[in-house]
Specification:
Layout lengths: L1 H14 L3 H31 L3 H28 L4 H15 L1 H16 L7 E4 L2 E8 L3 E7 L8 E9 L8 E3 L7 E9 L5 H15 L5 H13 L10 E6 L4 E9 L4 H17 L16 H4 L12
Antiparallel strand pairs: 1-2, 1-5, 2-3, 3-4, 6-8, 7-8
Helix pairs in contact: 2-3, 6-8
Protein name: Small-conductance mechanosensitive channel
Organism: Kiritimatiella glycovorans
InterPro entries: LSM_dom_sf (IPR010920), MscS_beta-dom_sf (IPR023408), MscS_channel_2nd (IPR006685), MscS_channel_C_sf (IPR011066)
């Protein structure tokens, strides 16, 4: 103990730090070391116990914020003794509410994201004209791996977008994957008026049935789980082909369920199969914008042809 007193006296004489300040510095250093060791230990425990990468990420983030919050509280007690805490926070909050309106809005939105979870890391969302996969969540912003923009069919652009959390309170957010993990995709196929459109429709229906996402039991269970959580109701979950007449031919639109991240790949597979199947048919052909002359007197139905003038 005598050596400690001498060390304290030496520091006071040459550094100007009183024994009380020296004690607070030692307590602060011990607190930071203990907090770091606790964080490392809990992270390792989480890595052993939690196999899901997404849950492990959220756990580390929550652990970081929780330990940081308690460290700040204890540091307050060490250096200020907790005196005037309520009055200080009252004055501070009034000033911060005006000066830091946007950061506080972002912080409130972070609490909303954490508790209500409109999205989590890994979800595909669209907000404020931007769309992408959520790759990070922080106190003041979240990050997206951008999709779309100049790249078609919801493919990744390679850019990372950082969006303030407060945007949740001002912009509409769309979640591609929460609850109902599938999206509807439509592929219009136009055939000529001379084609056997009924045969073409049967071919397209068979192709859509082979590529729909709800064939697996996993997909069916996801749909049932979404129906329990949200008021989601679809009259038909099986693929369907709709018929419409356009200027250049008969449009047959395939509508089917697909995984949001497989929209382009599934569309490619479907189109390749359509091209192969239609090539085998002599009475089905693709239509495209054309200009033609139609002589009703020669080509029209007998009941619609103009009558010859009476003698």
């Amino acid at each position: 103990m005598e050596h400690l007193y001498r060390i304290a006296e030496f520091i006071e004489n040459y550094a100007g730090l009183t024994p009380a300040v020296q004690l607070k510095l030692v307590e602060t250093l011990a607190l930071l070391i203990a907090a770091y060791l606790a964080y490392v230990l809990l992270c390792r425990l989480m890595r052993w116990r939690v196999e899901d990468v997404g849950k492990r990420y959220v756990g580390r983030k929550t652990l970081t914020y929780a330990i940081g919050f308690f460290v700040l509280l204890i540091l307050w007690r060490i250096w200020l003794g907790g005196q005037g805490l309520a009055a200080y926070f009252g004055i501070l909050s009034a000033g911060l509410a005006v000066a830091l309106r946007d950061p506080l809005s972002n912080l409130a939105a972070w609490l909303f994201i954490t508790i209500r979870q409109p999205f989590t890391v890994g979800d595909r969302v669209a907000i404020g004209g931007h769309a992408g996969d959520v790759i990070d969540q922080r106190l003041f912003q979240f990050s997206l791996m951008e999709i779309g923009n100049w790249v078609q069919a919801d493919q990744s652009t390679g850019r990372i977008i950082h969006i303030p959390n407060g945007k949740l309170f001002t912009d509409t957010i769309c979640n591609y994957t929460q609850g109902f993990h599938f999206i509807w995709n439509e592929i219009p196929v136009m055939v000529t008026f001379e084609s056997d459109w009924r045969r073409a429709k049967k071919i397209l229906a068979k192709i859509a049935e082979a590529h729909t996402a709800i064939r697996s039991e996993y997909a069916a269970e996801q749909i049932r789980a979404a129906a329990r959580k949200f008021l989601i109701f679809f009259e038909h979950l099986t693929p369907i082909v709709w018929t419409r007449v356009d200027e250049s031919g008969v449009t047959l639109t395939i509508r089917y369920l697909t995984d949001p991240r497989r929209r382009r790949s599934s569309e490619t597979e479907i189109w390749e199969e359509i091209l192969s199947k239609f090539a085998e048919c002599d009475d089905v052909d693709f239509a495209y914008p054309t200009r033609r002359f139609y002589n009703n007197a020669e080509e029209g139905k007998s009941g619609t042809r103009p009558r010859a003038p009476a003698p």
